Amino acid sequence: MTRILKYVFIDILKNKIVVAYCLVLAMFSWVSFGLEDSTGKGILTVLNIVLLTVPLVSVLFSTIYIYNSNEFIELLASHPVKRQTIWLALFTGLSLSLSTAFVIGAGIPVMVFSEPGTAIMMTLAGVFLSVIFIAIAMLSSIYTRDKAKGIGVSLMLWLYFALLFDGIVLFLFFQFADYPIENVVVMLSALSPVDLCRILILLHLDISAMMGYTGAVFVKLFGTGTGLVLSFGLLSMWVMIPYYLSMRKFINKDL
Amino acid sequence: MIEIRNISKKFGKLQVLDDLQLQLDRGECIALIGPNGCGKTTLIKIILGMVMPDSGDIWFDGRSIRKDIDYRKHIGYMPQIGRYPENMTIGQVIDMIRHIRKSDAGRIDDSLYRDYEIEAFLHKKMRTLSGGTTQKISATLAFLFDPEVLILDEPTAGLDPLAAEILKDKIIKARGEGKLILITSHLLSELDDLVTQIVFMQEGRLVLHKDKASLQALTGQSSIARSIVHLLKSGV
Question: Residue A206 pLDDT more than 70?
């Protein structure tokens, strides 16, 4: 496993995209903290950038990377290497490199400017988002043989999670405002990792007014402590379920 | 040594392999022949575990290959079209494969590595290589770990005459060492001095599996190519 991981990791690092991603994140973060007059506002700006760009870059880069690794996978599969090992090495390699880029790019400025608790939560959320969208990318690239279609599916998923989802929840809320649907809304928020991350950070910042609708209900229902545990649990599920499904498909795939 | 038990495989609606049964024994050099699309490469990929059969099983040395993947330590595989990570150099690819196979003893057979003078191109990226050079790398990797079984899919296609000759000598030498060699090829003429058995497939089914001598006795022809043509004309 570590032997294959080494080659995957080196290969990704040689790809300049990850370095560029890290630099762009760093630039945005330092600039937003520098320009906003209070740390709170700075954090919110960074949060919004993170919630949009991290999933996008993770999902796109990983989808394309998996398709481009076809030869690599084929080469290893004819040697005594388990399919599970190949898949896990690809997943770990992508996760390590994209998370590292995030921690260096956005994690460091957040640590410098804001209080430690918020900074840790923010970094954790970013790492989770990266890993979750890598898992989603692996799932969509294993289920579609065609590269263009696979990238399309990944982009649609990103669009849905990052932009459409909160809109749909809000729409439902207005449509069914006469009914007690708070619980349903909270259940729905578990269906989007981006919303979960937003809730996670805002729970910590304690500005529920700026949380979006799902976040406000979440706090009301669970309070801060339980909310944290629950959202971390759900985020972990978001990593494990897509990854597990993609691996099951990969094990039986004809190369 | 390799037992193919009732393998069937469909790609969509196309039945590529249809209830195929075959027994491949140690010390034989077996030619796998048949028209394009008769399932030769699919069969090879199933033996290697790269394609999953719909039904049936492969047994390697008395063990089902579904159970564990260690049997692949004993196989050297040369694909028809070698596909390698484009950004890696030849040196990195060879190092990586050696690294991955490290655990199983240090028997390294680098005679092809030397004969093809691969040292001179070690720094070249895989994407810049010509088809022939890629084939040389594939051949080198297949023989590198001195495996007991060699599976060569169209080994001489794309190689220049000199390189093809080197490879044929290597195959004959490996046959002498009692290895099982499975070759697919469309160049029947060049199989004559290599193989000891013929497997002929058509539309995913086994048509015949005989040794060279009895095939020639059956058809009264002197070469494999003529025997096969004779068989096809007379309608097996």
Answer: no
Quick check: B50 and A77 CB within 8 A? yes
% residues pLDDT > 90 (chain A) = 49
Q: CATH code at B104?
A: 3.40.50.300
> A75, B83: Cβ pair inside 8 Å?
yes
Burial A219-252 (b: 16+ CB within 10 A, else e): beebeeeebbebbeebbeebbeebbeebbeebee
CB contact B104 to A (< 8 Å):
yes
Neighbours of A16 (CB within 10 A): 8
Which residues 6+ apart lie within 8 Å of B128 measured at CB?
none
Strand segments, DSSP code E, in chain B are 2-11, 14-24, 29-33, 55-60, 63-64, 75-78, 149-153, 180-184, 197-202, 205-211
> What is Dmax (Cα atoms) for chain B?
53
Of B61, B84, B70, B57, which Cα lies nearest the Cα of B141?
B84
Our measurement of the distance from residue B156's CA atom to the centroid of its chain's CA atoms, rounded to an integer in Å, reads 11
pLDDT of residue B106: 64
Interface check for B63 against chain A (CB to CB < 8 A): the answer is no
Long-range CB pairs of A100-105, under 8 A, 24+ apart, other chains included: A100/A22, A101/A18, A101/A19, A101/A21, A101/A22, A101/A25, A102/A22, A102/A25, A102/A54, A102/A126, A102/A127, A102/A130, A103/A127, A104/A22, A104/A26, A105/A21, A105/A22, A105/A23, A105/A24, A105/A25, A105/A26, A105/A29
User: How large is the ipTM?
Assistant: 0.88
From the list B147, B73, B143, B71, the residue with the least C-alpha distance to B103 is: B73
- Total number of domains constituting chain B: 1
Say which residue the tokens 């870059």 belong to: A57
CA A135 distance to own-chain centroid: 9
Identify the closest residue of chain A to B88 by CA–CA distance.
A11
Q: What angle do CA B102, B105, B109 make, to 5 degrees?
A: 90
What 3-state DSSP class applies to A79? Answer: coil
- Note the pTM of the prediction, 2 decimals: 0.90
CB atoms within 10 A of CB B206: 19
- Residues A81, B50: C-beta atoms closer than 8 Å: no
